[in-house]
Amino acid sequence: MAVPVLKMDKQVDDAMGWFPTTVSKELLLEARRKRIIGGIGSSSNFPTPGRTENHPEFISCIKNKAVEHCENGEKALMESQFSKAVTCFAKAINLQPKQTQLYVRQAEANLQMCDFQSAAVSYRQACLLEPQAEAFHTRLAFIYYLQGQCLYDKGMFLEGLESFVKAAELKPSCRSYKMRSLACLTAMGRYTDCVRLVSNCLETDSQTADLFTLRARLHKQLGQVSLCYHDLRSALALSPNCPVANALLGQLQEASMRARQQAISWATAGRIPDALSKITTALEHCPETGQHYLFRGILHRRLKNFSASIEDLVLAVELSEAGGQRVGPSGHTQEDQREVQEEAQAQLVLTYNDFAVQCFSRGFYAEAITLLNKAIQEQKQESGLYINRGDCFFKQEEWGFALADYQQAEEISPDDQVIWVRLAVVHNTLGTQCYQDQKYREAADRFSEAIKYSPGVSQYYENRAKAHSRVPNVEGARWDAINTLILDHTDNQVASLLLSLFPGYSVSDVLSSRMARTVRAQLMDSIQTRRQPVSSVLRLNRARTIASPPFHG
User: Fold this and answer.
1) Which residues contact residue 29 at a Cβ distance below 8 angstroms, ignoring those fewer than 6 apart?
2) Would you tell me which CATH number, out of the four given (3.30.830.10, 1.25.40.10, 3.40.50.300, 1.10.3720.10), belongs to the domain 423-544?
3) CATH homologous superfamily, domain 288-414
4) N or C: lower Cβ tally within 10 Å for the chain?
5) What is the pTM of this model?
6) Any idea which architecture 64-198 has in CATH?
7) Bond preceding residue 287 cis, omega within 30 of 0
């Protein structure tokens, strides 16, 4: 195949004209052609690996050439020819790819041209070559920071965020890099991510009032006012005079008080659910205010949300106790805190009792007893609590415990007829058990106690008459039978017993006798003493009636 003859340009022709030679032009061109053809693929021009490149002269030549490129690069840097400097350092790197400083100088040249991406690539290579060099990592982080700031200024917040994140990963201790990431997130409206980032700073770095205040503002932006409040309190604990935190806390307190006033207005108008919603808003703005918890607890109690009421009232007590050592967050004095505590404790007792009443009505007697135990622990001088707990024990047929509670109530309120009625009932019940166990004398004593508390109940006299007839105590049985018929002339069982106690006499004969008149007078005196009119006398369930025994006599 014919090889085309290379054409010499005009400069070459001219040069050949200036320097004449004895060799003809054609011979020179032919020699040049043969040299080029012979050079292609020649092992003399392209030595095989492992032979020439390891030669000291070759290594020295490469090194010298790299130094020359590096010096040219430094000179270009001094002359502000940054593009040329980058090229020179790139040539030097091609010859000496493991020289760290070459990458560093190339990165600095790129940095002068604001080519942050190329500068970062060069510094990353330097970090790979010398991973222990802290200065390289620091410089690379700074380059990412500059790149991120330029992107942020251009409105490219997502790209800027990526650069700031890289900078923060390289230098986690540098808070300014994290704050710039926060600025990008804020600009994009990603407040949840902002909160997460600030929380990470608070966990890993030293806690400052500024960081807590910053997170508080983010929480407020997200509508999380309760978390905002707690962050502000933390900020003020570190710096009590922080103006931003104090101003923001004042705004929350004002909003809280406005919501409370609206809640009071709606509660007064009977709009309890609306009032509950408003006082909850007040609590979200100031979650350490005992007055708010007290008010909400009362509202929950009115709505019969007893568990929620108890929870709020307990918090009101705890906050007021803590507030007794300092002025409350809303400016309440220690005296105000004590008043809140006393009222919350009183409301707590009422709530325990109301909850217990609800449980009692549904047959949950054990649960009602537990609640009343808590109420009594808070208020030991309230007879109604002992009465209610005694009723629960009575329903569980725990007669002894019921009697003990009724007696305790009587000690507190000795003139309460409600307590007398219950004492009479439980004594009658215990007397019935004794009678069934054939303990007739003890039964009679129990029935006597029942009569002492409720002398107007015919059933107690009937039961005692039967117990007396078993002792036997004929005289006592006669008196009780007459009392029974005076109080309830329709009681046929006692009429039969009366005839057996007065053989040969009719019921009318017995009731018109002198003995009956004496019994009636004593009965009226007993009833009058207890101030218990016959018309309002409790009539016990007939299931408690004792079967009439045959007369023993």
Assistant:
1) 5, 6, 8
2) 1.25.40.10
3) Tetratricopeptide repeat domain (1.25.40.10)
4) N
5) 0.67
6) Alpha Horseshoe (1.25)
7) no
